[in-house]
From TrEMBL:
Domain of life where this protein originates: Bacteria
Domain ABC transmembrane type-1: 61-242
Name of the protein described by the UniProt record: Nitrate ABC transporter permease
Keywords: Cell membrane, Membrane, Transmembrane, Transmembrane helix, Transport
Amino acid sequence: MAGDGAHASRSFAVILVVHLAVLVLWQVAVDAFHVPKFILPSPLATVQTLGTTGYAWGSNTLVTALEILGGFALGALVGVALAVIFSWAPLLSLMLLPLFVTLNMIPKVALGPLFIVWFSYGIVPNILIAFSICFFPILLTTARGLREVEPDLLDLVKSLRGSRWTLFRKIQLPGSLPYIFSGMKVGAILAVAGAIVGEFIASERGLGYLMIQVQSSLDTPAMVMAVVLLTLLGVALYGLVLALERMFVVGDARQT
């Protein structure tokens, strides 16, 4: 346990140093080459935009965070639930999974105007766009994890007359957890992209909406700051998934 904690601390320190080095190099390069602010602002000039009240950073960031988290949570819930249903009903999987593959090929940008027509402006259509992008990888990886179960374990449970629920709870679900979290990590990244796609198409609030507003005035520092905040939101969601994976997958492995 102590060795794992020390290794995690060293890894975090290395990651932090690399990120700080990139910021320092960015600042030095902009100052040394006198790069105009509208082309590439320095990190200091970017951070200074947080003091400008006209951007409403807090409310716009909160709106985008709700869209990302809502789309991701809905995608994880629906993706895992459908994968479980497909594992219990192979005929239904044969009928519907190819349909989901086809629907996933639709460019999500093309769905944006339709969502606006159906659900009007606001957070809801952006949540649905984020969901439409992130749910499919979770569905596929979870379905694969539920299929890849040791045949000997299945035969053992069946020989003991275990119910389908017992088989799922004791064998399939624990064995599929690495696949589920793998899909959720991909989904966390895609949920950020989905929310921003929705805000770019039509929105009245959010970081994507703010970027469109400041683009016309070449306010590059504000645009870069919006990108930084989006990145932090994505990193936070990804870190949450990693923490849950460590809790449920790594923790179970240690107990066994």
